Amino acid sequence: MALTIDPRLAELLGHDLHLPALDAARWSRPALAERFRTPPIWQPDIEVERWYQAPDPVAAAVLVPLVMRQQPAVLLTQRTAHLKKHGGQISFPGGRSEPSDLTPVATALREAQEEVGLAPERVEVLGTLPTYTTGTGFVVTPVVGLIDPVPDELDRLNLVHDPNEVDEVFEVPMSFLMDPRHHQRRAFDLAGTKLEFYSMPWQSSPDKEYFIWGATAAMLRNLYRFLSA
What domain range includes position 121? Predict the structure, then answer.
């Protein structure tokens, strides 16, 4: 079932002000590696979108790329508007699994190379989070990996994105995304049923906002829960 909602117009239910921001020490390289080596007992907030009705789910994977700058950030993409699935939305690099992909990690790395030009050897894969099932029928495995900027005076990533799939590649600070004060709980009504979702609007400048919502926001929320458990 396709949804045409503008998420910015959905009812704002509130923010989780009672939850603490993640301590910056938790997203250092050693701490992240150790967390995935010995994961805690924890529970994702969302695993299946309530409007999921697809009869034949499709396996997919995304790369959750953590850019290890002095102030770490998450790399995200804005998808081109013409795409049939999730056109114009903010997403991680990723897509459906192909028969040649032996694992979800292989899918995530292949898709990241195709979409944003990130070579697989540049990714230090830490592990995966629980699958997330979207309302459009994708069972998505989030693959978390670290990437380093090219060591030059500009601290660049030197990525070249595919304009057929990606309009823009950008970064959002971990300090913003891992702070529940920025996790908006929103809802819209569909045939009398209230469907809730997370959004994390990121204002990169006074005139530029990236409205992160839906599956991407939910997986970031689950990453927060995993790292803070």
Answer: 22-228
